[in-house]
Design goal:
The chain is an alpha/beta fold. The protein folds into four domains: 11-112, Fumarate Reductase Iron-sulfur Protein, Chain B, domain 2; 118-175, no CATH class; 190-316, Rossmann fold; 329-443, Rossmann fold (3-Layer(aba) Sandwich). Helices cover 52% and strands 9% of the residues. It contains 25 helices and eleven strands. It has helices at residues 25-28, 42-47, 54-65, 73-80, 87-91, 98-112, 118-130, 134-149, 152-159, 161-165, 167-175, 209-212, 214-226, 242-246, 250-265, 277-284, 286-289, 297-306, 310-316, 336-339, 346-353, 376-379, 381-398, 408-421, 430-443, and strands at residues 2-5, 8-11, 190-191, 199-203, 229-232, 271-274, 307-309, 329-332, 359-360, 402-405, 426-429. The strands form three sheets. A five-stranded mixed β-sheet has the order 3-5-4-6-7. A four-stranded parallel β-sheet has the order 9-8-10-11, sandwiched between helices. The chain has a two-stranded antiparallel sheet with strand order 1-2. It is globular and about 80 Å long. Bound molecules: iron/sulfur cluster (2 copies).
């Protein structure tokens, strides 16, 4: 890592920040090391280590920026362990944009990582050659569905053979989402508004969500139509690029952002509605992602202004409160990308509060991450489960039979946690319950 030049040791350029995607100094030096963010950080709370805190991670970024250290494996390890939940951003009194800093840092890390390892190859294939292509993803998910429903999955799990032969593959298998019975497809269809039309909205289909939560996406469309929205699902839309950004593939994320901007801008809608908090957060930040693109910066700014999270959109409409009652005890886990990145916490609770008959109980530490974080649950399995364990301890105190949330990654992670503990509870989206109440209303 260290090169000698003119008798002086200096860090090799590969180990330093460089290029347009380096963390911006004006953001880096906003951090005054006060430590107010520490108690909000799940990795700091789990370890008590400064290096696993936002302040510690920023200190490492500054040290690399000042060429005092290089991006060695041990430095990168501390950034890798960040869940990118952005709770530190909310807690920070100095306005440090940690999300932008870690995104830029991971783009630098991505440049440095060595090619060749199996995990790296798999990451490259899935991010560049599968996720952006809905047809390929569908094929893969159909194979996963056959594996899950044929009995092969339970055989593999019961035998423990995969865990003995390839523990990391077994971890991936354990995190595999349950593929839904039906898929949601964006085929350019339009769903008419019920009654007088109040708005025309385009819906983001996304990459994994329409395949693992197809019926739940249908519920989102029904809820919108019930509230007087004409809903269109533009055909050529692609994955939002959130997962790519998370691991530093910023160029790939930009390519998908440009495509989505073009496709949704042609749809002639009042809003682009997003049911996944992670995707909504990414799309609201296309303006930042494409800020240096002379052809797209202005278009991206206009596009980002049109993006609305589903709960935000429904509350602003405003939505029609359901009349039919649901008999259950419900709690809500804030998804980090809704609460911390989009700063939306009251809209989902207002929707839940509007459903008659339901008892709502606050989840202790509802704003603390569940440990899902993009690919974190696969790449940092042990840590992800530690964070999930604390979440499940909190959930058990509520006595709720339904745990609601607003992001597919959180939904899958929480479902895993509940199944592991054998709890008699279900995990649902807030919109599932609203849809259920509307449907009961109809059936009388
Ligand atoms: S990120 Fe903000 S809260 Fe955390 S140490 Fe820096 S200035 Fe303080
Ligand atoms: S994004 Fe989350 S995990 Fe990462 S440093 Fe901030 S609070 Fe900690």
């Amino acid at each position: 890592m260290v090169e000698a030049k003119h008798g002086e040791a200096r860090i090799a350029p590969d180990f330093l920040f460089s290029g347009p995607d380096a963390p911006e100094e004006s953001d880096l030096y906003k951090c005054v090391h006060c430590g107010f963010c520490l108690q909000a950080c799940p990795t700091y709370l789990e370890t008590g280590l400064e290096t696993e805190s936002p302040r510690g991670r920023i200190a490492l970024m500054k040290a690399v920026n000042e060429e005092r250290i290089g991006m060695t494996d041990s430095v990168i390890r501390h950034w890798d362990l960040c869940i990118q939940c952005r709770a530190c951003e909310v807690a920070c009194p100095s306005g440090v944009p940690y999300g932008s800093l870690i995104e830029a840092t991971m783009a630098q890390v991505e440049r440095r990582r060595k090619p060749g390892a199996l995990a790296r190859f798999a990451e490259n294939v899935s991010l560049n050659h599968v996720l952006p292509h809905q047809g390929r993803l569908k094929l893969l998910m159909s194979a996963a569905k056959a594996y899950q429903r044929s009995g092969a999955q339970s055989l593999v799990r019961k035998s423990g053979v995969l865990r003995r032969l390839a523990p990391s593959l077994a971890d991936m298998e354990a995190s595999m989402p349950r593929v839904s019975s039906t898929y949601f497809s964006a085929k350019g269809q339009t769903v008419e508004a019920e009654g007088e039309a109040r708005a025309r909205a385009a819906i983001l289909s996304g990459c994994v969500m329409p395949l693992v939560n197809g019926p739940e996406m249908d519920a989102v469309v029904r809820v919108l139509a019930r509230n007087g929205c004409e809903v269109v699902a533009p055909e050529r839309q692609v994955c939002c690029g959130a997962i790519h950004s998370h691991v530093g593939y910023l160029d790939a994320a930009r390519k998908m952002a440009r495509r989505n901007i073009d496709v949704f801008s042609e749809a002639g809608v009042d809003a682009v509605v997003v049911a996944s908090a992670g995707c909504g957060s990414r799309m609201k930040e296309y303006a930042h992602l494409l800020r240096d693109d002379p052809q797209y910066s202005e278009k991206a700014r206009r596009f980002s202004d049109m993006v609305k999270d589903i709960h935000e959109f429904l509350v602003e409409l405003p939505f029609v409160p359901p009349r039919a009652a649901l008999d259950c005890r419900v709690t809500y886990q804030d998804s980090c990308h809704l609460a911390n990145a989009q700063r939306i916490t009251s809209a989902p609770r207002r929707i839940l509060d509007s459903i008659p008959g339901m008892e709502f109980v606050e989840l202790p530490n509802a704003g603390r991450c569940c440990g899902a974080g993009g690919t974190y649950t696969i790449t940092e399995r042990e840590f992800s489960l530690r964070v999930l364990n604390s979440k499940m301890d909190d959930f058990e105190t509520t006595g709720a039979d339904v745990l609601t949330t607003a992001n597919p990654g959180c939904l899958m992670q929480l479902q895993y946690g509940i199944a592991e503990r054998g709890l008699p509870a279900q995990v649902k989206y807030v919109t599932d319950l609203l849809d259920e109440a509307y449907r009961r209303e109809r059936s009388g």
